[in-house]
Amino acid sequence: MKRVSGEKGQAAVEYLLTTMLLVTFFVGLYGFLHPAVRKMFITGGTKILMTYD
Question: What distances in angstroms separate CA 41 from CA 26, 34, 38, 50, 52, one per listed residue?
């Protein structure tokens, strides 16, 4: 039962893979949604500024 270092290594690899998966997911999501969010932000800002005219 001396496999403690192997289990720690497996946990480290699992954490790294999970981190890489989540980063890839969020970067892809950002790239997919960025144009829509930008358009909504510009539209909202224009409406807010038009109310002060």
Answer: 20, 10, 5, 14, 17
Query: What is the average pLDDT value for the chain, to the nearest integer?
Result: 89
User: What are the helix (H) ranges across 1-53?
Assistant: 4-51
Rounded distance between C-alpha atoms, residue 20 and residue 15, angstroms: 9
Q: Coil, strand or helix: which one is 52?
A: coil
Structure-token pair, residue 15: 């954490």
User: What are the C-alpha distances in Å from 3 to residues 10, 17, 38?
Assistant: 11, 21, 51
Please give the pLDDT value at position 9: 86
Question: What predicted TM-score, i.e. pTM, was given to this entire model?
Answer: 0.59
Please, what is the end-to-end C-alpha distance for the chain in angstroms?
76
